[in-house]
Amino acid sequence: MASEDVKRREGVNKAPSNAVIGICKSLIAGGVAGGVSRTAVAPLERLKILLQVQNPHSIKYNGTVQGLKYIWRTEGFRGLFKGNGANCARIVPNSAVKFFSYEQASKGILYLYRQQTGNDEAQLTPLLRLGAGACAGIIAMSATYPMDMVRGRLTVQTDKSPYQYRGMVHALSTVLRQEGPRALYRGWLPSVIGVVPYVGLNFAVYESLKDWLVKSKPFGIIDNNNSELTVTTRLACGAIAGTMGQTVAYPLDVVRRRMQMVGWKDASSVITGDGRGKAPIEYSGMVDAFRKTVRHEGLGALYKGLVPNSVKVVPSIAIAFVTYEKVKDILGVEFRISD
Q: Which regions are annotated as Solcar repeats (predicted)?
């Protein structure tokens, strides 16, 4: 009896520690996935933001190829990756929280769904996965939004800007001092609205596509060694998921970026490059930003930067999903997103 009690206590003590280790491994996998995927497409990410906030009265970036060439010519190789350090500082915790939140939200929603249906073998439907993905996206985005806000400004500024943010910490402290705490969450509402279809569709489409492929088993899709989807197939699923999500949510991303520039006294010279163009329009809120953008620049302005973003989002999302699962395999985490 005594030995059984000791074993029982040891089991109870090990359970929490194993759970903590599992959580840490999951967060690490998500962080690595985010950092690797964003660094791989950093030049396209920077060009997308520059196109989104570019002053229409002083055009410098006119397309994907021309824009990348212009950055290379005027700022060199380092210019292509400007803001990537701040982006990784944001995306690593964001991605870690997002993937972990999705797993936890999926478990919780699946438990409630099985309780409601009375079927212990029930699986998540695409709609429930959409809800889990949306929850994960909102939690992760809200937790790291101030870093995203200053990252946008760090990405936009050039070597010729009259005032330089020296890094993420300096940018955060400067915005706090000059514009107040609320400025760090400027553009948060369109981000919340946009993250539902974007992140939600990413997870829902990715998971549903994989389930369908595993069940239908078309030729060449399944790895015969372990009866799982091949890496190439998972990359393709991630690419399709990313393309669908970003196309639906893109106008909200444009509005968010423009709202983040409001209140920045040097925004005009930063965006136009010479300070001679008309100053960027001020926005009082999300609806006002939509209205003024369409009125002054047309509906097409809501999709500025869509081409480099489309080129970027396909490999970015695909790399993130595959890296996440591979890192969890390496770390020995039993529960993976594909499970």
A: 21-108, 124-212, 229-330
Cα–Cα distance for residue pair 298/128, rounded to 1 Å: 36
Task: Give this prediction's pTM.
Answer: 0.56
Count the Cβ atoms, other than its own, within 10 Å of residue 306: 21
Q: Which residue has the higher pLDDT, 130 or 64?
A: 64
| Residue 53 resides in a domain | yes
Count of domains in the chain? 1
- 3-state helix, strand, coil split of the chain in percent (to 5) is 75, 0, 20
Which residue has better confidence, 288 or 19? 288
Q: What domain range includes position 94? A: 14-331
Domain assignment of residue 9, yes or no = no
d(CA 292, CA 283): 8
What mean pLDDT do residues 202-220 have?
Answer: 76
Mean pLDDT of the chain: 78
User: Residue 25 belongs to a domain with what CATH number?
Assistant: 1.50.40.10
Q: Which residues contact 105 (CB under 8 A, 6 or more apart)?
A: 131, 132, 133, 135, 136
Residue 336 maps to a domain: no
Compute the distance between CA of residue 198 and CA of residue 76 in angstroms, rounded to an integer.
32
In a domain, 5, yes or no: no
Q: What is the pLDDT of residues 96-111, one digit of tens each?
A: 788 788 888 888 999 9
The secondary structure of residue 244, as a DSSP letter, is: H
Task: Give the 3-state secondary structure of residue 229.
Answer: strand
